[in-house]
């Protein structure tokens, strides 16, 4: 029998700003794993940024180890993985329409309006980017997913909550994208980082935004 590490198994029972952020992050850079051969159900969260994985681990009250997965070639970066075995967490996350192999048929959960900003920031930190075009010096905000329907619904929620025009989901070779130009992108970033103190966020993306608006 494997070692049983501590974790707050009730974390996803009730909405909070931290819970909404981590849920959004899982929708982007997480997965559920049904390892029936081990009689185990797991949550996996991964990213190239060790600090954000460590912060998520702490928020979950987890004592699990963060595993470093070295880059196999020059086209990839070192990744850090947090893997938590818990039937309770697995089942609670399943209620938000998460399931193993979710990438191509991701469904938008029902998110209380109060927590949408935290959910969106979590998803942005996992599968979004803020990009400064060098030639023009203009800013773009991009959200990516393997599922068009998910981005269609995300676009509608962004439009509803941030009061910007509805954006069409674009097919970008191996994935789908929502792309926002500078005016709408700055509105989104302002919404994501409002009252950010003591909340979860990926520092490097926040700094790009801060440096741009200085």
Automatic annotation (TrEMBL):
Pfam families: LAGLIDADG_3
PROSITE patterns hit by this protein: INTEIN_ENDONUCLEASE
SUPFAM superfamilies named among the record's database cross-references: Homing endonucleases
Species: Candidatus Falkowbacteria bacterium RIFOXYA2_FULL_38_12
Record-given protein name: DOD-type homing endonuclease domain-containing protein
Spans traversing the lipid bilayer: none
Gene Ontology terms, MF aspect: endonuclease activity
Domain DOD-type homing endonuclease stretches: 22-158
One BP term from GO: intein-mediated protein splicing
């Amino acid at each position: 029998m494997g070692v049983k590490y501590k974790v707050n198994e009730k974390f996803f029972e009730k909405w909070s700003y931290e819970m909404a952020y981590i849920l959004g992050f899982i929708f982007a850079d997480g997965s559920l794993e049904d390892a029936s051969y081990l009689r185990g159900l797991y949550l996996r969260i991964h990213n190239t940024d060790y600090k954000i994985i460590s912060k998520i681990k702490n928020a979950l009250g987890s004592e699990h180890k963060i595993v470093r997965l070295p880059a196999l070639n020059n086209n990839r970066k070192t990744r850090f993985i947090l893997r938590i075995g818990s039937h309770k967490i697995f089942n609670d996350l399943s209620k938000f329409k998460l399931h193993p192999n979710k990438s191509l048929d991701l469904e938008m959960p029902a998110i209380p309006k109060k927590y949408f900003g935290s959910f969106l920031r979590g998803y942005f930190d996992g599968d979004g980017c803020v990009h400064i075009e060098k030639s023009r010096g203009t800013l773009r905000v991009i959200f990516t997913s393997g599922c068009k329907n998910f981005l269609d619904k995300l676009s509608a929620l962004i439009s509803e909550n941030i009061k910007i025009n509805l954006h069409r989901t674009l097919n970008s070779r191996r994935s789908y994208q929502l792309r926002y130009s500078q005016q709408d992108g700055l509105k989104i970033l302002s919404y994501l980082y409002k009252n950010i103190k003591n909340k979860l966020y990926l520092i490097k993306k926040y700094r790009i935004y801060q440096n741009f608006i200085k």
